[in-house]
Amino acid sequence: MAKKKEQFKNDRALRFYYEVLGLERLHYGLWTDEDERSLEGVKTAQKRYEDFLVEKIKKLAPSPVDCSVLDVGCGSGVMSQTLYEKSFEVEGLSPDLYQKEVFEKRIPVPFHLARFQTFTPSKKYDIVLMSESAQYIPMKRLFENAANCLQKQGYLMVCDYFTFDHASGPLAKSGHRLSTFLELAKESGFNLVEDQDITGETIPTLDTARDFAHRYILPSIDIFSEKLTQKYPLLFRASQWLFRKKIRKAWNNLALLDSEEFAKNKSYRYMLFQIGQEGS
Ligand SMILES: C[S@@+](CC[C@H](N)C(=O)[O-])C[C@H]1O[C@@H](n2cnc3c(N)ncnc32)[C@H](O)[C@@H]1O
To answer: How far does residue 216's CA lie from ligand 1's centre (Å)?
Structure first.
């Protein structure tokens, strides 16, 4: 039987963050107490997170020109661009058509339109970087293919959130289970060489997003709905019924913006694994 051709989509959320909010990066960022809890604060925190990872990469590779990095789930490519400007031999990968377009405008380096779990590398990399993208890749395939993509004793750098064994409720639904992830890493020949819990520095993003939604998005919806109810009552009720699932989903997503619940159920980690280190 012929293999089904993989389909790729256009990420509308990225377009919204990028074109409407002016956010180039797609991760939580790394906050300090001094950062203003605002959109500008998000940008500062995101830049700090990027610097944090770039410093970690620089420590692994004193000579960037000899170090190849595969930026898995590269988003709009800002991190790749920073690495490129620092002379790393970087390549991007994402299953998203809009990201491909933005990435290719940004830097003249290879972009792989692919899901990592089905990606076939044509070379071996020194570092496979997963900045908030590991959560989208099935765990077993993540380690199998990272092993396939890496040089002997290469590094897998993962920065992402994970769920605890006791996690429950809506926040338990996204992110890999931390204990299983670590077990699978070990079974797949990946040795954990660095592990940092950065939950406290990442979750102010949730408070800021919740505040933003309550201050701007919800009041705008209220005003808009009021106007529609007055002008087109029937049409308004019909559209509410038609979009009821989407409306419910949006409300449920608001419940996810709870930093205390996040910290009870999840851990945001920076983890560095090296392949084939132990006993090799
Ligand atoms: C939260 S964004 C992080 C983007 C970027 N790394 C950053 O730190 O700003 C998640 C990224 O993972 C990508 N992604 C989703 N599923 C993927 C998969 N199966 N394989 C590789 N990347 C994937 C998305 O398209 C997006 O680029």
So the answer is: 27
Looking at the 3D structure of the chain, how many domains does it have?
Answer: 2
Q: Do 103 and 218 sit in the same domain of this protein? A: no
- Residues 95 and 146 reside in one and the same domain: yes
The per-residue DSSP string of 59-81 comes to: HH-SSGGG-EEEEET-TTSHHHH
Residues with CB under 6 A from ligand 1: 11, 25-27, 72-75, 79, 93-96, 99, 115-117, 131-133, 136-137
Candidates 95, 191, 203; CA nearest to 146 is: 191
* Ligand 1 pocket, mutate which of 53, 90, 94, 159 (most atoms under 8 A from CB): 94
Q: Is residue 5 part of a domain?
A: no
Q: Residue 63 contacts by C-beta under 8 Å, 6 or more apart in sequence?
A: none
Ligand 1 centroid vs 73 CA: distance in angstroms? Answer: 3
Q: What is the pTM of this model?
A: 0.86
Same domain, 154 and 222: no
CA of 135 to the centre of ligand 1 (A): 9
Range of the domain at 221: 207-255
Identify the residue whose C-alpha is closest to ligand 1 atom 10. Answer: 133
Q: Which of 37, 30, 27, 32 is nearest to 74 (CA)?
A: 27
CA 221 to ligand 1 center in whole angstroms: 29
Cα separation, 268 vs 280, whole angstroms: 30
pLDDT in tens, the chain (280 residues): 566 778 887 776 666 676 667 677 888 899 998 988 888 888 899 999 999 999 999 999 978 888 999 999 999 999 999 999 999 999 999 999 989 999 999 999 999 999 999 999 999 999 999 999 999 999 999 999 999 999 999 999 999 999 999 998 888 888 999 999 999 999 999 999 999 999 999 988 888 877 766 666 665 666 666 666 767 666 666 666 666 666 666 666 666 778 888 899 999 999 999 998 654 4
